[in-house]
Write a structure and sequence with these properties.
The protein has a single domain, classed as Aldolase class I (TIM Barrel, Alpha-Beta Barrel), CATH 3.20.20.70. The chain has helices spanning 14-21, 35-41, 43-51, 66-77, 92-105, 126-132, 139-152, 165-172, 199-204, 214-217, 222-233, and strands at residues 4-8, 30-34, 55-62, 83-87, 114-118, 157-159, 177-180, 209-212. It is globular. With 238 residues, it is an alpha/beta fold. The protein has an eight-stranded parallel β-barrel with strand order 1-2-3-4-5-6-7-8, surrounded by six helices. Helices cover 42% and strands 16% of the residues. It contains eleven helices and eight strands. The structure holds the ligand O=c1ccn([C@@H]2O[C@H](COP(=O)(O)O)[C@@H](O)[C@H]2O)c(=O)[nH]1. Residues 8, 10, 34, 118, 121-122, 159, 181-182, 193, 211-215 line the site of the ligand O=c1ccn([C@@H]2O[C@H](COP(=O)(O)O)[C@@H](O)[C@H]2O)c(=O)[nH]1. One of its GO terms (biological process) is 'de novo' pyrimidine nucleobase biosynthetic process. Belongs to the OMP decarboxylase family. Type 1 subfamily. Catalyzes the decarboxylation of orotidine 5'-monophosphate (OMP) to uridine 5'-monophosphate (UMP). Pfam families: OMPdecase (PF00215). Keywords: Decarboxylase, Lyase, Pyrimidine biosynthesis.
Length: 238
């Protein structure tokens, strides 16, 4: 898991995914399947990506009552992804139920997928959080609070922005994954992301993995762009 660059496959369907992956040939990647793709294609997209040897983060951000999340996770465990997630806002009991479901659905002799919790979406600003969610603390405090709750529930880590990773490590300790979307090169558009950081910043902050979507998937030459990102992320060019 550590030091991975996860490509967000935010595509409308399997055909678009195949078109995107085709130029990568046999290269095995770490990819993320989110709501857009999974709600269209269902489990078959996971089977297809696994057949090609890709590692998979199934980013469905479960958030419901504990019993529902437990049973949903039991089913998702059978897909044998590497990483799944929930929203920490669902609470400790819900997160514990997610783990129970995952363990129940994981075949004998296999390792259950890592399970992490979204703290505050990287598209959320402090102002939005204060005014819309009525959470009257600083954004960093909220993210750290959710991280502690996630650790107490027994999960493996969190989704956060690179800006919060160091503070989370200080507070929660290790091992604890920090998976960070909202990663952009200086010249990239932020789009809907509010808490963005460069891959250099993320590496220096010691995050476990970065998630990169549009900067790679919408570039003119995704393979070349991916290669450039990998080199920067791994510190070949700082
Ligand atoms: O807080 C979060 C949680 C998940 N995401 C997901 O990551 C990618 C980011 O894509 P970009 O195109 O690089 O912005 C996307 O799939 C989100 O659903 C996130 O951005 N923030």
């Amino acid at each position: 898991m550590d030091n991975s660059l996860i490509i967000a496959l935010d595509f409308a369907n399997k055909k678009e995914v195949e078109q995107f992956l085709q130029p990568f040939g046999d290269r095995q990647l770490f990819v993320k399947v989110g709501m857009e793709l999974y709600y269209q294609e269902g489990p078959s997209i996971i089977h297809l990506l696994k057949e090609k040897g890709h590692r998979i983060f199934l980013d469905l951000k479960l958030h419901d009552i504990p019993n529902t999340v437990k049973n949903a996770m039991k089913g998702l465990a059978r897909l044998d992804c590497d990483l799944v997630n929930v929203h920490a806002a669902g609470g400790k009991e819900m997160m514990q139920a997610a783990l129970e479901g995952l363990e129940a659905g994981t075949s004998m002799g296999r390792k259950r997928p890592y399970c992490i919790a979204v703290t505050q979406l990287t598209s959320t600003s402090e102002e939005q959080m204060n005014k819309e969610q009525l959470i009257p603390v600083g954004l960093l405090d909220s993210v750290v609070h959710y991280s502690v709750l996630t650790k107490e529930a027994g999960l493996d880590g969190v989704v956060c922005s690179a800006w919060e990773a160091e503070r989370i490590r200080e507070k929660v300790g290790q091992p604890f994954l920090t998976v960070t979307p909202g990663i952009r090169m200086k010249e990239d558009q932020a789009g809907d992301q509010k808490r963005i950081a460069t891959p250099n910043f993320a590496r220096n902050a010691g995050v476990s993995a970065i998630v990169v979507g549009r900067s790679i998937t919408r570039s003119a030459d995704p393979v070349q762009t991916y290669q450039k990102w990998i080199e920067i992320w791994k510190g070949v060019h700082s």
